[in-house]
């Protein structure tokens, strides 16, 4: 670890390699540790809403006078960010509309700039940690390899003025390291704000029954217990969305992180039956019919993802409705594949500012989400928040407040009682 953290130590986790475990007891909601970002980058779509340096959200941020694309709380934040922003400032102006590196490329450019300047000072422990992050470069499949090659091309195109690059092989390693170990910073409704690397958090292994959860305060990651932990317990987070059944979770883990999970839930599959609940029919449904429908569902999910940025909102809604109708002959409304499509449809409605439509879809999600996710889940708190706020917009305040209070109860554990999001939420509740 970058330093010693009280109550936490590194150890060799059987079958998993390095990991973290606690040396003292932690209660649900207790902070294990907080970790500043080694490097972070704000999403292009959030420019102007959040400070590029500290990720504070507020009105009236001050613009970078040169590129007019980066925004800051004040001169102090701007000065502190310059070592990173200067990698992009002049290029943004020079390339204009054609400036379009991926968020991954932007983050890697920052890591390269930072490790360079730290090496100049002296050998930093943090560089070693970045070097230590697992890369699995030999496991990378064609699709991921192509993406990494694309990112390297962008790096040369947009950042060559300010950076000396290591050779191609080392760059490939760095990109796969960051792909496996990068964290998405999200807000209270799980909107994507940016990407960052946290060397200490990258040491935490995965479980589908996580003992801790990661949330963000500004650009720092905070790790809190979501289960009571006793000395010797491993610190475990979930790398993936836990809604889906065991096979889907493990496919996802293999595709993105190159391992399969052997946690208790993956062994017993205790929630799979509920997650794949079938429609009640007088005649029993043949296993083959179910299997075919699962295949259809997975294909629909992939197709929707591929079309998300191409098709119109109307066409996307139609895709959701069509696949729900198909699946509805076999699957119950609470089946996770149905829920996946309902959630996407809700997202499309939100995008179109169709509040009533979003509420109609959201209502179908609330109860099954609560039943299928672990007790302290950001997926559950964020749906309560979204729905609560939508009901407030419709002046249905008592329903809205009820949902916001449910979100608050989860977030007191996941975010800590003094987080800014909770202060804002208490204010929203008090106003009505
Ligand atoms: Zn700031
Ligand atoms: Zn600038
Ligand atoms: Zn598992």
From TrEMBL:
Q: Which reaction does it catalyse?
A: L-lysyl(4)-[histone H3] + 3 S-adenosyl-L-methionine = N(6),N(6),N(6)-trimethyl-L-lysyl(4)-[histone H3] + 3 S-adenosyl-L-homocysteine + 3 H(+)
Domain SET: start-end pairs: 6-240
Task: Cite the Pfam families for this sequence.
Answer: SET, zf-MYND
The MYND-type domain, residue ranges: 51-89
Q: Which GO terms describe its cellular component?
A: nucleus
Q: Does the keyword Coiled coil apply?
A: no
A GO BP annotation: heart development
- Signal sequence segment: none
What top-level branch of life does the organism fall under? Answer: Eukaryota
GO molecular function annotation: histone H3K4 trimethyltransferase activity; zinc ion binding
UniProt KW keywords? Metal-binding, Methyltransferase, S-adenosyl-L-methionine, Transferase, Zinc, Zinc-finger
Enzyme Commission (EC) number = 2.1.1.354
Give the protein name, as stated in the record: [histone H3]-lysine(4) N-trimethyltransferase
Species of origin reads Cynoglossus semilaevis
